[in-house]
Predict the 3D structure of the following.
Amino acid sequence: MTSESAGILEDIQDYVHRVARTLGVDPPEEMFEFGQRSKPEDRWYLIGLIGGKEVGKSALVNALVGRPISESTSHGPGTEKVVAYVHEDQADSVASFLQTEIPDRYEMVRHRQEDLNRRVLLDLPDIDSHYAVHFETVRKLIRFILFPVWIQSLEKYADRQPMELLRKVVQGNAPENFLYCLNKADQLERSGGEEAMKEIKEDYSSRIAQSLSLSQPPQVCLISALQPDKYDFPRVKAILNRQREEKDVQTSRTLALRQYGGSLLGWAKNQDLRDRVQRAERMEEQLINLLRHRIERPISEVMLPSVRQDA
Amino acid sequence: MDRTIDSILERLDALDTELFSWDGRLGDPELSASLKRWTSDLGALRHHLVGGVNRKPILVLIGGTGTGKSTLTNRLLDREVSATSFRRTFTSGPIAFVAQTEDLPEDWLGLPHRRIDSKDLPAKGSPGYLSVVEMAIEPLARFSLVDTPDVDGDAETHYEQAEQAFRWADAVVFLVTPEKYQMTELLPFYRLARRYEIPSQFMMNKCESEEVVEDYRKQIEKRGFSEPIVYSIPRDDSTHLPPEDEGLDGLRDSLMGIQPSWDEQITLGQRNRTQDLALRLGDQVLLPLRNDLASVEKLTESLHQFVSPGPQVDVSPMTAELQERMQAKSILYLMGPKRILERAKKFTTSAYQKVTSPTSWFGKKSGKRSQEGETIEVRALPDFHSMLVDQFRIAQAQIRDILEGNSRSKVWISQAGEKEPDLWIDPEGAGEIVDQELEDLNRWLKDHWESTPRDTKTILSLLNYIPGGKRVVEWSEASPYLLVIVAAAYNSFFGPIDLLVIGGYSVATWLGEKLSNEVTGRVRKTNQIIYRRFEELMREQVEHQIEWLEKQTPSKSSIERAEDEIDRIAALLESEGGAG
């Protein structure tokens, strides 16, 4: 993020806070933190797998990494801690970041792959878990995840709750930084074949577009975590397993910043400041009238003359 | 039937009648919707209180998207009658499968029933009505089955419809999958099923392992269901096999064995239903309405105390010319009380000489005289019309501020819009006041343009009775100034004028104020009328607002009557049932 754009965002945030203070309302939730907390020498970026129970996040992480680093569970509380897959050179810095944000709720898995030395892959707890702490963990980290991977399953892709969370997350990021995945493609192929797969992809894509008011339906990758060579998985691997260039990360940050700045300004606009000012002015006038009518006139027209008479 | 139930039904009828009169009298659309939902749920309560020994139980399927309700329906009935798809949230409305339409009470679900032709199967359902499929097949001889939309999807109306069906259900089947069995959306349903003693069955679809089924069973037990059985259907390609009587067939047998139970006495489930519904009305409708009444009272008081800015209208510029003309002819104005005194003293000596040539006075002043027949030119007036319209608008905005300052009336006013065109008086009415009064004033001006001021007229008529006075009157018609001089000159000869003019100092002052200022008087009158009429218009506006406010809630007495009924029902519930 260039210092200029950081400066602009700070100005916008300042303005929004001032508006909120003046009106006595809560300012909108802070959603944008990409790169703000990291030190200059930390050049890592976060990819986060976000999804509900049983959609297959952990299986997906394992398939991306190539070996089991996250436990895939079928029932019970599910993934409880954040699992961070990171190059050992960056591990310390990432660990201290995670310790600050979500103390003791994470696990580090180190690797030595040079060509992925700046990528940090996060497996996150379920967003629809009964355990409130799981949702809190995800919520705390979302603002730092520049590249969210939004995972759904065939069964749950039309659920209301995840869609509402997605709407919120999108406000602080740019649609271009998102990757939408639909897991368990193998089940769909077995029961419905090519046609069903195409239909579901389109259905999910149009639901996202409608919910987020996007001008174009986004790309949806239909995958099966159990078969990393089939369906759209190769494409997902190509996107996630290839390290992004510094300047591309920079571009993504700028896009996210722009979107977030826009959301903030939109919030400020919705506060109807001009209307409120006009109303305040009218109330002031009304007050002056009341004072004149109730206090000034009785004094000058009734009291004073009668005092004069007596005198 | 149990006396208690009878009495409760009576009170519910009375309540229903009272609430019916509130239709259209609620300014808050949310409150209106709340009331509508409550009234619909009242129907469900009646259904469960009235009951009937021979009534076939109506089974309702409840579950999230993709849990397989429609598939289960088809499997239970052994036919493709409920539409299924890989696309989620496919079932859009409730669908009832019955052996014959008589198996369904007419008002079941509180929605219109629509028969679905067999050629339109499989049925998808639609919000807003109950689709009914008639099929004379075996399972439906024992029970009627209702497929519902999902309780957790992104389609807005689906949850409401599922919930509505649940309220009318005689028995429920909960459907889950390994992915969804822990979802929070089902928890309130479990709780109510326990509280209302609704016979409940549990089924897990798309099973892959025994542990998951067992985990679900444990969770259900924790919710208060004693020794629950979880039936399961394996996923198509899974190797999981449910135990002997706990698969699809087991479920079917269990459902077929549901006996319609009917108790003469009011049951705990019925009591709880009644109590919950009564409390809900109090909490969600009556209490907010009480608050609304308080808001209306406060606002009415504020409106009564509202002081509008008075119109700053002074029409004297319009009469300025006439005023000058009058003053030019007014003897007392010209003389002025002090001047009368001075001149009276001065002219005793010098006036005798000067008066011999009245024409000198005439000529000297002639330039100042205005010509006859001139058209009356009214000097440029400030645009009072627009001023008043603006002031009225500002006052209306201030009234609006009062109404928007209260959170309740803010909601009502945002709903008003097109429905209440009479809420705001047209501000042009204020401008018309000015137009009318100025027209009136204009007429008066025209009438008085040529007239003589009253004071002069009075003095002239007085002079007629004084010897030589007639001559004076003739001369004064030529020039009012002459009259002044003559009057002053005559003071040494004619005591009465002397008295009138000098000694009557206070009379002169009085005359000056009362008579020669008829123009000022008329101006003041017009100003006052305009002010008064503006205030009246303002008051009318405020009355409109107050009337409108009173229509935003039902009357206080009506609300009290509803509260009474609720209290009576609560009392009935507390008493023991049975013949009293």
Q: What stands out?
A: Chain B has a mean pLDDT of 80. The first strand of chain B starts at residue 58 and ends at 63. Chain B touches chain A at residues 64-67, 86-89, 150, 152-155, 177-180, 182-184, 206, 208-209, 211-212, 215, 235-237, 307-309, 394, 397-398, 401, 404 (CB under 8 Å).
